[in-house]
Amino acid sequence: MSVKILGGITAPKGFKASGVHCGIRKNKNKLDLALLVSDVPCATAAVYTQNKVQGAPILVTKTHIADGYSQAMLCNSGNANTCNPNGVELAKTCCELAAQATGLKPNDFVIASTGVIGMPLPIEPFVTGIPLAVDMLSNKGGNFAAEAIMTTDTRRKDFALEFKLGGVLCRMGVMTKGSGMINPNMATMLTFITTDVAISPQMLDQALKAEVKETLNQICVDGDTSTNDMAVVMANGLAGNPYIAENNADYATFCTILHKICVWASREIAGDGEGATKLLQCSVHHAPSKAVALSVAKSIISSDLFKSAMFGEDANWGRALCAIGYAEGDFSIKNVSLTLKSEKGEVLVCQNAMYHPYSEEFASEILSEREIEILVDMHDGDYYAQAWGCDLTYEYVKINGDYRS
Amino acid sequence: MSVKILGGITAPKGFKASGVHCGIRKNKNKLDLALLVSDVPCATAAVYTQNKVQGAPILVTKTHIADGYSQAMLCNSGNANTCNPNGVELAKTCCELAAQATGLKPNDFVIASTGVIGMPLPIEPFVTGIPLAVDMLSNKGGNFAAEAIMTTDTRRKDFALEFKLGGVLCRMGVMTKGSGMINPNMATMLTFITTDVAISPQMLDQALKAEVKETLNQICVDGDTSTNDMAVVMANGLAGNPYIAENNADYATFCTILHKICVWASREIAGDGEGATKLLQCSVHHAPSKAVALSVAKSIISSDLFKSAMFGEDANWGRALCAIGYAEGDFSIKNVSLTLKSEKGEVLVCQNAMYHPYSEEFASEILSEREIEILVDMHDGDYYAQAWGCDLTYEYVKINGDYRS
After folding, report:
1. CB contact under 8 A, A321 and B53
2. Cβ distance of A83 and B226 shorter than 8 Å
3. More confident residue, B300 or A51
4. For the domain with range B279-402, which CATH number is right: 3.30.310.40, 3.30.450.20, 3.10.20.340, 3.50.50.60?
């Protein structure tokens, strides 16, 4: 139903992007400014962090896409432009500079920043960097943009799918980044999704808001909800599919593709969490409600103790059960079973919330893999949810003990 | 008004205690069974974990002190007796064995366990260990009992105060333990408080429940709410003070002493958190409500990112502000100021939720101390609260990557 294609956010028709080094980051080998421009206006939906401290770019982006449309996106790494006295002014000036260089209007721009909080951010890098980024715009530039939004990420995170709507070939691309301060709440880290699907802003907003609850909000690296989380979808309609303006079969297909894109982004962010050596995927089956399924899955992959045990490849399942026990919601734990699974096989370690005999050796072998799945069966309903996290390692502490130097 | 004295939980009149090695822990040099007996019945109040998974001893203790009284306490380390199919039966058998050996009734006993979750726990160590512990009972035995309840704690945690009520000399002692799976919720880790004050069970219960909200519930080592948290106060009345049965001046004094004891315990647990090199104390001033003050203080000392920065002695205050921003409650962040303080001095790093110029060198010097205070002024009301935590270190990951072996 969908096929993976190359190109990331520039895979959909009519999107150009670039990534340049403008000098916000000291290391000249690291790109730090990403630009994305669509040939035509895009229906645009976004979700933002629920943190009371919000990055200045979020405040500016909210007003710019209040009408449901945008046409371009500018994002820097190396500085979050948060808690800076002149942050909003600076973000607005950046949009003006980008408008001048592209011939668009300032409020056509989504703007975002990621990096250290509360460090002064000068305008100079943008003055030289924005025209350079405009010069470099290309329909093959998605990869460079994805590289320019990285902070402690160890790899570029972009991806694209091709699919059909009403018989018409459409595309959806995404770039995203982690990798610390990851505990999205009704929003997510920086995730930018492009598509050439023709869809109304209202339907796009509905699709994104439903989707992030089940994927991007279900990631946790360290329990810290960032001040700059943002997920944006820009749909320029250039695929020429029948315009989606109601809850029909094409909308359902669109949501399925958006789900695949967001699951991919969630797994990428979690698996490349700061210091991570393992991706943890928790799948909760037969929960009494969707909310409980989501809460239980997230609680397990958020537990520092369980994450440390996974780093040590120790099947200390009691910590997972403990994390279920303090998950939010009204539910019974008495029928819960736990299975640990990887490419090496699977092992049932807990049944009816009690110890179930198993081979520690085999369990350790299962946990030696890079991707670990924790299967929870609550035997108490029909709801299902997943969450994604990573192990807690020495490297996480090292990265964050000395992030700014 | 109160003076520190020796003896821990056996400092108050009429309490005897012991700590022995009974074989639950493999290392014969580690004590693993604590016993406490009062000469006369004690008004008893307790709070327990809110985790849906609860240790078997908690279920048994709840029924035993339902009448407001107990006379003794038995606690093992090395195994939490949680998620064991025969856990409740085993806890009851332990109380019966202890009753036989002491001449008390099984339901005179508070029982507690701490250690690994979901590992089978045999009765044999108790069969030999309980009579041994009874033989060793002494009014100087508080220190041994405090040693026997340790798990990954690096030091014994007991303390006592002497004070006057109605002109009569009284005493209060405490023993407590950490040091991982620490994020108490309406309860706490294992904390046992003894006193010879004469007080009704109702007033004792009221005092304890009010107190834990401001101290023991305000600790966080790793965000994991344990399955076995319990705080108990046993008051045997042998001091001979005027019986406290109403909210009078003596009750207020009693609450002040209980607060000192619980602050001490909170600082001890946090400062000896798994892998900790620093005690973090966050004090929130001028908050719009008590709930917001508590929530903001707890949020900062719970942030993995901030804890890692403290380990690295890096004044990355933006992470503290970020943690305030995602704290629960309805409040404004716009007037928030942050000061970092230690014996080396103090430095204002953030004013009106924005960057405030400061010397990074001096800030690092302040953070080089073992005890760090984070002062938050919300400039938005009259409420105050504190919370206690520790830094996040390589050692935490090491301890928990391989806890069971």
Report:
1. yes
2. no
3. B300
4. 3.10.20.340
